[in-house]
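Case study B.
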Amino acid sequence: MNIAHPPAPPSGPEPAPTLNALFWGFSWVGLSGFGGVLPFARRMLVDERRWMTAVDFNTQLGMCQFLPGPNVVNLAVVVGKRYQGLPGAIVAPLGLLTGPVLIVLLLALLYDHYGTLPQAQSVLRGVAAVGCGLLFAMAWRMGMAIREKALFWPFTLLTVSAIAFLRWPMPLVMIAGLLLSGGVAYWKLGRK
Amino acid sequence: MILITLFLEFVLLSFVAFGGATALLPELHRVVVDHHHWMDDTTFTHLYAIAQAAPGPNVLVVTLIGWEVAGLPGALAATLGMCLPMSVLIYLLMDRWERLSGQRWQQAISLGVAPLAVGLIFSGATLIAQAADFRLGAWLVVLATAFLNLRYKTLHPLWLIATGALLGLSGQL
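Model:
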């Protein structure tokens, strides 16, 4: 992806960030993005504060995306542990989440008081429509990024049928889907 | 105890949240609206909209659901349930990752999970459309948003969200 990034400056490695720096660094990340903050995590960690190299970032992110759960929270744990051990692994995700959670809870308070007003309902309807469009766009982008589409798109179709139409429980669908789709991928990898 | 139920439901969900909280949307709806009847379709879409309009990681929709079900303790229980298990796992696993990564089964899972995540996110989109009972005007906004977001990559989604809010306020949707 980012193969041609400029070489690191000749200065020695940056000093390990303190707990304070971890907290505020990740706070900045958390408050920067709307509907996903991963690009901002990259900007802070790699470009601005240089806590990680680009290659390092991709490896660590690979692990965070491999495991389920909120990827960027996982990433905060990884970076926190790396520089400050257990305290860092607690402080970094806290920094990431505290600001956004406070804001969203404030909005929730407003919603509880004014959510029944017709104007509020109309606004939320408009935002939901945009959110829905963003989801379709994200699905499209991710779908187009899949290589060997003829082989793997059928699994997308199966997932949509099972989840959106049949409304089967997701844990079952994911286990079955991973066995099938992962099995095909395993077979494909063996043929190379 | 609703707090414990809430916490455990989200712990369970965190184990299948491949593709993050966004891919989890259909399952959140199934558990929260269809199964537990903690809220109706309208409230669910409203909470999703609020999470979209607020800064922060995608996981915030979980925080909002927890709030709606059981107030502040609910918000914390849901968020912790969602974040804690994988955080602990990754904390324990990260030093061994170098050895695991690149192996054939690991690559196979990464490749195999991608088409499923696409299906989950697509399902989430159709589900929001259904739950919000979109009419023609709203569908036009959906299509325009998807098109603009794909076509103009540097256009900040916040502009789209603000436009959507204004169009909504005008009562056209």
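Residues 60-93 of chain B form the longest helix (34 residues). The remaining cases will be described in the next quarterly update.
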